[in-house]
Amino acid sequence: MSMIKRLFGSASKPDVPAQPRPSQIDSAPDSRTFHLDNAQAATRRELVRVMTRDTLRATGIPEGWIECHVLLELARNGQTFVHLRLVVKHWDIHLLQYTIAFQHLLMAEITRFDPAAHEWLLSISWQYQVGDSCPFPDMPDPQLWQAPPVAIGPAPAVTSVDLALDMEEPDEVSEDLARLFAIRDANLPAAGRN
Prior knowledge:
The chain has 194 residues and is an alpha+beta fold. It has a domain at 46-128: GMP Synthetase, Chain A, domain 3 (2-Layer Sandwich). Helices cover 51% and strands 13% of the residues. Strands 1-2-3 form a 3-stranded mixed beta sheet.
């Protein structure tokens, strides 16, 4: 029985709350610091949201394609850090190609307003919630990863000729292309003589 009393304490002893050590009191953030960090975190959260919205508009990405989720992390010292999660809600191959460029542009815009943003904006992550709209539901053959990478350049500008070609039947496209090449070939010698 004495062993149980030693392990769990005696019922006759009154419970005395443990007093914090002086070092614990000194290291704990006071209420003024917490309120300052809380207000600063709210400002930073709003800055990230507004800059994400403005960058989406400036780049022409349609509304609703990307959602902005701002997550806060409270450090042990009372400082608040920010994590940005960009949730892709619409599948588009061009959007996938330019996510890195968008991320760099967004970070540059945030840093333009707060040069210390690299210290408190700890991460930008991407999440894809595109449902069944992605045309690649299954993984490819493993040999695909062994093939040399295909160079992907910037997306070509769409011209009115491209739009017209997309709307015509394949036979008409071939005929139009043949006519265009004939006109080009007929004008090439004339241009060389001038």
